[in-house]
Amino acid sequence: TDTQVGIIGAGPAGLLLSYLLHLQGIDAVVLEARSREYVEKRVRAGVCEQPTVDLLRNIGVGARMDAEGMPHHGLSFRFEGQDHRIPLTELTGKCITVYGQQEIVKDLITAHVDKGLRIEFEVSDVALHDLETERPRVTYTDAEGNARELNCAAVAGCDGFHGVSRPSIPEGKLKVYDHEYPFAWLGVLAKTPPSHEELIYARHERGFALHSMRSPELTRLYLQVPPDESIDNWPDERIWSELQQRLETRDGFTVREGPIIEKSITPMRSFVVEPMQYGRLFLAGDAAHIVPPTGAKGMNLAIADVRNLAWALKALLQDGDPEPAAAYSDRCLDRVWRAEHFSWYMTQMLHADPGADAFQQRLQLSQLRYTVTSKAAAGSLAENYVGLPFR
Ligand code: FAD
Ligand code: DHB
C-alpha cells in the first residue's frame, strides 16, 4: 500500500484526522481540491466548544488558540428590544472560545508541515474504487496534471457536503434525512471593533441577526435573508441599515460600522446520512451531515467525528480489531442527532418564518422568554451550547 489512510479534504475534519492518525503512528495522505491559500482564507465557523478546545490543546496544536482565541462565559438573546444573558460558565462550569475555523486550519497545516506529513493541494478528478475490499484505491490528478493512484487500507471522506465521497456510495445503501429552511444567512466580516463583549442572537420581526467577532478589531455579523437570495441585492449600506434595525434596543444600542472585507450567503439545511460508512470508506464532518449554523455546531461535530474515527482506524489497522470501525457510525450518530436537534431548535426559536401565523409567533416568543428566565431551560441550552462531553 502507498499509505494506510487516504483522506479526501483538508477542512477541519480531514486535517485533524490526519494529525490524530500521525500521533498514533498511522500513515495518511490528505488530498485537497483547493490551494493552501484558499483553505486558509475561507471564512466560516468561529465558535469552538469546550471539548473541541480541550482536544486541540491536548494534542499540542492549541498554542495560538490559547494566545489569540477569545473565551466567552456568556451570550445574549435579544428580543423585544432587550438583552437576556445566558451565563454559560455559571450554568455549566465551561465556556466557548471564539477562534476562527480558518485559524484552526492554519494551525493544523503548520503542524503538518513541521512534522513532514503529506497534504496534496490542488488535486482534481478524485475518484474512489474498490471500497468493498480491504485495499481501496483513490485515483486523482495532481497539481502538475499527472494521473496518480493511492492504494490504501481505508479511505476517510472528509470532503464536505459537495464532495465526491458520499456520492461514491452505491444508491440505496444510505438512508438520507433532509430538511430545508425558508431562509439563508448573509455573513459579513467587518474591520471594526465588536459592538458588544459577547455574542448576540437577535430575534426580530424583520428577521434574525447575529453579532459575533473574530478579534478585538474584527466583527463578524450575520443576517437572515430569503433562500436563494443574491448577494448583489445587498450593498454595504443596506447590510448596515438592516443590522441597525434588527439589533436595536430600547436603551439605544447601535452597531459599530466599518469597512466590510468579506461577504457571502449560505443556504440553511439539516441533513444526515446513515450509516456514515460503506465498506472501507468512512464519512466524517459535513460529508455526512449538515446543521443550520444557528448554534455553531458544524465544525465542532466534524471534530467529534474524526476523534472517533482516529481511534477506530487505529484499532482496525494497528491492532487488527474491526469492532470499533464497525461501530463508528453508531458512535457518531448519537452526538450528530443531538446537534441536529439543538441546531433546529435554535433556528426555529430565532428566525422569522415567512409562513408562521400569529399563533406560532406567540409560541416563539413564549419559548424565548422561558429559555431566558427558567434556570432549567437556560441550563439545558447552555449545556448543549458549550458542548456535551465526548463519549
Ligand atoms: P469542510 O470544511 O467543508 O472541508 C471539506 C474540504 O474538502 C474542503 O477544503 C474542500 O475544498 C475539500 N473538497 C471538496 N470536494 C473535494 C474533492 N472532490 N476532492 C478533494 N477535496 C475536496 N460550525 C461551527 O462549529 N461553529 C460555527 O460558528 C459555524 N459557523 C458557520 C458559519 C458559516 C457561514 C458556515 C458556512 C458554516 C459554519 N459552521 C460552523 C459550519 C462549519 O464551517 C462546517 O461544519 C465545517 O467546515 C465542516 O468541516 P469539514 O472538514 O467536514 O468540511
Ligand atoms: C458564529 C457562527 C455561528 O453559526 C454562530 O452560531 C455563532 C457565531 C461566528 O461565525 O462567529
From TrEMBL:
Gene Ontology molecular function terms on file: FAD binding; oxidoreductase activity, acting on paired donors, with incorporation or reduction of molecular oxygen, NAD(P)H as one donor, and incorporation of one atom of oxygen
FAD-binding domain sequence ranges: 2-343
Q: Which keywords accompany this UniProt record? A: FAD, Flavoprotein
Checking InterPro entries in the record gives: FAD-bd, FAD/NAD-bd_sf, RIFMO-like
Among its keywords, does the record have Lipoprotein? no
A family per Pfam: FAD_binding_3
What is this protein's name?
2-polyprenyl-6-methoxyphenol hydroxylase-like oxidoreductase
Output the superkingdom of the source species.
Bacteria
